[in-house]
Structure formats: C-alpha cells, structure tokens
C-alpha cells in the first residue's frame, strides 16, 4: 500500500476531512457527537478518516480553533483503518461496523465470500460436495445468487437438493459459526487453490505476449529466440492468437459472434486470412454476412494497429467466454482441447 502524504495545510482539506480530524482529536470519549450524525454522514466522515494518514499538529490546532474557539491542539494524530474501526465500534453494533468498514476498505479488503465469487464454479463445487449440506447452504447463501446457481448446477443432484432444502429452512447464522466456516475456507480451500492454480511462467508470458501488438510481439520473440530458443518455442506454442479462432466449433463461433460488437468484428476480419473470414461468414445468416462484407468494403484502408487491437479484443472475448464454460478453446500448440 502506498504511504499516505502528511497533511500540512488546512486549505487542502475537504469538509468531511476536517470533521474527521476534529473527531479523531476528541478521541473515543466523545461518541455522543457520532450518535448525532445520520448514517450517510457517518459513512462520509468515516471514509475521510480512514484515508487521512498523518495530520500535522499545526493543522489540528488550526482546525480546533476553527471549530471551537480557544481549544488548543493535542498534537499530531493518525487516521487509519484500525483507528476508524475502533471509534465506530464504541457506539455502533459490530455487524454494522464490519459492513461499513468493508465498504470503506474496498476491493483490497474484500471478504472471503467475495473471493469465492471469483472461484470457478466447478472447482468450488468439487470442494463443497465433501462438506456437510448445512455448511454448503451457509456458503451459497453468502455468495452472489448467480454464482450460487452455477455451483448448485455442478453438484450431484441429490446433494444439491439437500443443500437447497437447508437454505430454505435456514435461520440467521451465529457469528461464531460463520467465523469458523470462513476460517476453514481460508485455510483449507483458498490455500490449496493458490497452490494448485499457480501457473507455469511460460504460460504467464504467453498471456503477456498475446497482448502485444504484432510488431512488438515479433520483436520480442525474435530477441528471445537468440537467447533461449526453447523458451521462445514454448511461449509461441502456448499463445492463443486470432487465427486460432479457426479451431472453434460452429456453436463456439456463433457464441463469439453474439459477444462481439459489429464494428470490432468488421475491423478484425479486415485483417484475417480468407479461411478464417469465410468461416465466420458461413456461421452468419446470408443477410448478416452481406451487410458485414459491405461494412468492411466501406471502411477502405485501415491502420494495422487498429486491426491488431480489434483482433486482440476478440481473442479476449473468446477467453472470457471460455472461462465461463460457454465455448471451448484450443491453444495453437495443443493437441487436446482446453478450457481456459
């Protein structure tokens, strides 16, 4: 996390920041002031407080003079996530504090349930099928409904129905039980997931090379071949490039066509091989293919870098669809089909 810049000038402070500094200076004894604020005000001041960092003594003094004539400074103070949480906890219910601080902290501090939302449903279902149905019910009630639906669909049917039944009858879960489930998920599931999902370094570099424009990619591959031919060949084999879309089945092509903006498709096909272009046209209606050809003709000459960007964009759409299990992709150097 980047270090916060010290606040040395009162003129640079917003209203909520000024209020946050005064409340920090007053300390935990003055909760009556907080109780007089409404929820939106508490949220605004809390967000300002959590992001303050160090405030110089002179600024504190100027502010206190501004708020309460004659009151002197108590010295430099530190506004932090922990200090804000401590102050809020002195007058707010714990669950409300947790929810507010989670919102303030943002993506870097997302809960276990948010992290589970990024786990492939098949992987999560494979883990949960060995758990008690009641535990699975709690987990699925805490993740987003669309993700819960996908996980349930991956579970054995009888087990899934048992979990659904438990969810229908579920009472509010005690905090201790929830904490225990979170801890188990963190230590058993997420740590194992991190170990098993660690990618080969060549695969990581292939992803990076996929995002180069054509000239940069060729330059790096050529330079790498001179230093380490084996590494260059492995990266090239792992790269999934625009022409590899020719390996999609008709259903995959049609799914990709639905997920690609028409302007992007026209630009990408402008620089495609005849074989790939014909394959896409053959999976459109006769009328749609005719309109697409006319659109491409009306473009006239186009810049290579714009074509490259459109093709990279289509490859990314394909990878996103593959990650959702909606299409199958095969890597350029692979004999078997892989779901990315």
Automatic annotation (TrEMBL):
Q: Which residues form the Flagellar motor switch protein FliG middle domain?
A: 123-194
* Flagellar motor switch protein FliG C-terminal domain sequence ranges: 223-329
Q: What is its main location?
A: other
Alphabetically, the GO molecular function entries are: cytoskeletal motor activity
Subcellular location per UniProt equals: Bacterial flagellum basal body; Cell inner membrane; Cell membrane
| The Flagellar motor switch protein FliG N-terminal domain, residue ranges | 12-113
Output one GO BP term.
bacterial-type flagellum-dependent cell motility
What Gene3D superfamilies does the record tag this protein with? Answer: 1.10.220.30
User: NCBIfam families, alphabetically?
Assistant: fliG (TIGR00207)
Q: Which family does it belong to?
A: Belongs to the FliG family.
The identity of this protein, by name, is Flagellar motor switch protein FliG
Q: Which organism is it from?
A: Caulobacter vibrioides
Taxonomic path: Bacteria, Pseudomonadati, Pseudomonadota, Alphaproteobacteria, Caulobacterales
